[in-house]
Amino acid sequence: MDFNAFIDGFAVVTQPTNLMYCLIGVLIGMLIGVLPGLGPAATMAILLPIAYGAASDGNQVAAIIMLAGIYYGAQYGGTITSVLLRIPGEASSVVTVFDGFALAKQGKAGTALGIAAIGSFVGATVSIIGLTLLGPIVASYALDFGPPEYAALALLGVLLVATVGNGNTVKALVAAAIGLLLATVGSDSFSSADRFTFNTLELQSGIDFVVVAMGLFGVGEILYNLEERHGKPHVPAAIANIWPSRKDLKQSSPAIARGSVIGFFLGVLPGGGAVMASLAAYAAEKKVAKDPSRFGRGAIEGVAGPESANNAAATSSFIPLLTIGIPANASMAMLYAALLVVGVAPGPQLIDERPDLFWGVVNSMYIGNLILLALSIPLVGIFVKILRVRPAILAPITALITILGVYTINNSVFDIFVMIAFGIVGYLMKKTGFEPGPMVLAFVLGSLVESSFRRSMLLFEGDPTGFVTRPISGVIIVFIVMVIALPVIQLVLRRRSSSNTPSDPSNPSEHHDQEAGVR
Amino acid sequence: MRKHLSLGAVATFAVVALTACGGVQNTAGGGSDSGEYPSGAVEMPVGASAGGSSDLISRQVSQGLSAELGGSFPVINREGANGALAAAEVAQAEPDGSMISVQNASLFAITPLAVGEDEVTSIDDFDVVQGVSRDDYVLVASKGSGFTSIDDFAGADKKITYGTTGVGTGAQLACALTFNVNETPAEAIPFDGGAPALTALLGDQVDTACLQVGEAIENIEAGKITPITVFGPERVEFLPDVPTAQESGLDVEVAQYRFMTVPKGTPQDVQDAIAEAMQATFETEEYQAFNEQNNLTPMEISGDEVVAQLEEDTQRYADLVEEYGIDLGDAS
C-alpha cells in the first residue's frame, strides 16, 4: 500500500471545504435515513446536480465525499425511526424494528439507539480499515481484469441483483431484464449501427444512465412517497438514558463483531449491500443465541448485529466501485453516475490517477463516521421532529430541484422528459411491487456485459473457451454456475422431500412459483 | 483551498439558476445588428463531456474571446453521437454569432466512414472561421507484446490486437490503415474512449492501441508502454524520438484538429471579429502554455485553409478505406 498517498488523503479530507461537504453529506444522509421512503439512492439522484455544481467549482473530491456521506449516513438515521416509531427509515433497518421497538416499549429506547450507534461506528470503522488495506490490493490486480473478466463479473452482478436481492425474485428478474433491454438503446459501439433510436440524434448515444436513475429513484420515490405517507401521524417513544450499561455492552460486543465481519463480506459482493447484510446478521445472531426466543422481545443483540452489519456493508461496497469500477448495488450505481458527472472515469486507473480522490473519499469515511457517532444521539430529537414536515411541502421542492438539476447536467430539455417518463415508470413499479434497483443496476451492468463479451470474443477470435481457461474469469464463471444451479438444486431437493410426504403429491414446482409470486 | 467556502446548496442553486438562464437566452444574445459584437451572451456548445480535450480547448478559447471582445461566451457540454448533437444545434441556430462552436475534424472526415448516410454531419452547414490546434494520434504497444517498431509486427506469430477509442474515430482509422497498409493480420477491439483502451493496453489485454498523444504521453514517459509511430505530417514536439508513419515507410497520415465554426450565413464582420480575437488569444502566453500542457500542436490557419484541408482529408481517407477494403463500421 502506498502509505504516503494514504496520509495525503487525510490532508485532502481536512481541507475545510472537504470537511464541510463531508459534514453536509452525513447530515443529509442521517436526515433522509430518518425519513421513511426517501432512500440514499434517491437522495443521491436528487443531489447529483449539487455534486456537478461543486465539481465545476473545482471541488470534485468534495462532491464525491458528500455523496458517499449520504450513503453511510443513512445507515445511522434509519435506525432511529425503526426503534422509536416502528417504521424502518431505511430498508437496511427493517430487522432492527423487531427488537429495537420492543426495547423502546420497555423504556430502553436510549439503550437501543446507543448500542446501534456504537455498533454502526464499529462496523463502519472495521470496514473502512478493510477497505484501506484491501482496496489497493484489489486495485493492483485490476489490470489483470480484461474484457473477459469484466463480462463475467458484470453478468454475475446482474444475476445476483436479480436473485439474491430483497423481495420477489421473479419481479426482480423482470425488472433486470427490462434494464438489460434499455441498455441496448443507442448506436452500437462496435458497428455504429443504430438500435432503437427511432432516428433521433438524442437517442443515438443511448439513454443517459444518470437521467434514468434520477427518474426512477428521484422522481419515482417522490411520487410514491406523496401517496404513501399521506396523513400518517407519528408519535415517537420517549428517550431516556442513551448510554448503554456495561452489561448491555458486554452482551452486544460479540454481536457487533460478528455483524461487522458479515457486513464487510456481503457488502463487497455484487448485488449485496446493507440490506442483505442486516438480514444475514440478524439471522446469524438468532442462530448463535442460547435462547433464540428472546429475539423479537427486545434482545439487544438483535439491534447490535444488524446495525453493525449494515454500516460495514455500506462501507465495503465501495471496494468494487473504487477499485475496478463495478457498482455493487443501486446506491453505488448512483455514485458511479456521480463520478461520471464530475468527470472522473471509474475504473482500475482511479487509484493511480486520482489518489487524492480515492484516499480523500476513503479517509473521509473515518471522519464522517466520527461525526455521525458524535451527532447521532444529541440530534435524535430534532430528526424526529422533521418527520412532521408534510410531504406536500417537501415533494414539490425536491421535484423542482430534480428537474432543474437534470437539465443542468447535459443542458438538454429532452433529458427532462426522459427523466419524468422514468419517474412515472418508477412510481408504477413501486406501486406494483417491482423494485427499480435491479432495473437500474442491470442497465449499468448490461452494457458492460455486452461490450465486454463482444470484446472478449474478438480477443479469443471467436472461441468462448477462453472464458474458463483464464484464471480470474474461470473462477467467476464457477460462481455464476453456482448462482444458477443453487435454486435448481433446492427445487429438486424440495420436490424429492415433498414426494416423500404422501399427503402432498401435487405439483411442487407450482407451489414454488406461487410462493415466489405472492409475497 | 478554493476561493470560497460557500455552502454547497447555495453554490448549486447559483449554478442551476445561471445555467438555466444561459439555456433560454439563445435567441436573445449575441446578434450583430447594431454593429458591436457581441451584444449578449454567446453560447459555445461542445460535443464532448467536461474535462476532455475538446472541452478544455473550447473553454480556453471562450476565455480568450471573453477577454478580447468583452461579454461572456459560456461553454455548454452537449455530449453525444461523436459531437453530432452539438453540431446539429449550431447548424440550426440563428446565423448571427449568438452560437459558435469549436468542432472536431473527425466528425466531418472520419465519422462518415462508419455511420449511415443520414447521420453524416456536413461541413456545408457551417462557416469555418479559424483553425485552432492539432491533436496527434500515436500507436503504442504494450510491454508484454515486445513490439518496439513497425518492423516487429512482421514477426508476430498470431493476429495482433489493437485497441481503439471507438468506432468512427481517428484512432480507429489510424490503426486500421497501419495494419492494412503494412499487410499485418490484426483485429480491432473498440473501447469506449481513450481511458479504457489505455487500461487494457497497460494490463496487456491488447497488444497495441491507437490513442491521442495527450492520453498516452504520461505512460510513455513512465516507460509502461512503448510508442511505435505517430500519424501527423511531422514528428510531434512532445515525442521527438518517435518517427512518423511516413518515416517508417507507411503512407498513412491521420490527424485530429479543431476549428471554430459558426452557422452558415453568419455576417462576415462577426466572423472577422471572432477570428481576430482568437488570433490575439493565440499570442498570449497563457494560451501557449495551455497548448504545451495538453500536448496540442498549434494549427492556427485561416478558415478557408481549414476547409481545404478538411476536404482533402475526407477524400484521402475515403480513398484509402476503399483501396484497402476497410469497413470502420464493422468491427465484429
Tell me the domain tally of chain B. 2
Question: What's the CATH class of the largest domain in chain B, please?
Answer: Alpha Beta
- Number of helical stretches of at least 4 residues of chain A: 23
Number of domains of chain A: 2
Please give the number of β-strands of chain B: 10
Name the beta content range of chain B: 15-25%
CATH architectural category of the largest domain in chain B:
3-Layer(aba) Sandwich
List the helices and strands and how they pair.
The complex is a heterodimer of chains A (519) and B (332).
Chain A: H1 3-13, H2 16-34, H3 40-56, H4 60-85, H5 96-105, H6 109-141, H7 147-164, H8 169-183, E1 186-187, E2 194-195, H9 209-228, H10 246-268, H11 274-288, H12 301-316, H13 318-324, H14 330-341, H15 350-353, H16 355-376, H17 380-386, H18 391-410, H19 413-431, H20 436-459, H21 466-469, H22 471-500, H23 508-517
Antiparallel strand pairs in A: 1-2
Helix pairs in contact in A: 1-16, 2-4, 2-16, 3-4, 3-9, 3-14, 3-18, 4-5, 4-6, 4-12, 4-14, 4-16, 5-6, 5-12, 6-10, 6-12, 6-13, 6-16, 7-8, 7-20, 7-22, 8-20, 9-18, 9-19, 9-20, 10-11, 10-12, 11-12, 18-19
Chain B: H1 8-24, E1 44-46, H2 53-69, E2 75-77, H3 84-91, E3 101-104, H4 105-109, E4 126-142, E5 160-164, H5 170-181, E6 186-190, H6 194-202, E7 208-212, H7 213-221, E8 225-230, E9 255-263, H8 268-283, H9 285-293, E10 297-298, H10 303-324
Parallel strand pairs in B: 1-2, 5-6, 5-7
Antiparallel strand pairs in B: 3-9, 4-7, 4-8, 4-9, 4-10
Describe the structure.
The complex is a heterodimer of chains A (519) and B (332). Chain A is mainly alpha-helical and 519 residues long. Chain A has two domains: 3-469, no CATH class; 484-517, no CATH class. In chain A, 74% of the residues lie in helices and 1% in strands. Chain A has 23 helices and two strands. Chain A has helices at 3-13, 16-34, 40-56, 60-85, 96-105, 109-141, 147-164, 169-183, 209-228, 246-268, 274-288, 301-316, 318-324, 330-341, 350-353, 355-376, 380-386, 391-410, 413-431, 436-459, 466-469, 471-500, 508-517; strands spanning 186-187, 194-195. Chain A has a two-stranded antiparallel ribbon with strand order 1-2. In chain A, α4 crosses α5 (96-105) and α5 (96-105) packs across α12. Chain A starts with a helix and ends with a helix. Chain B is an alpha/beta fold and 332 residues long. Chain B has two domains: 39-133 and 257-318, D-Maltodextrin-Binding Protein, domain 2 (3-Layer(aba) Sandwich); 136-254, Periplasmic binding protein-like II (D-Maltodextrin-Binding Protein, domain 2, 3-Layer(aba) Sandwich). In chain B, strands 3, 4, 5, 6, 7, 8, 9 and 10 form an eight-stranded mixed sheet that branches. Chain B has a two-stranded parallel sheet with strand order 1-2. In chain B, 52% of the residues are buried. The chains are: A mainly alpha (519), B alpha/beta (332). Chains A and B meet through α2, α3, α18 and α20 of A and α1, α3, β6 and α6 of B.
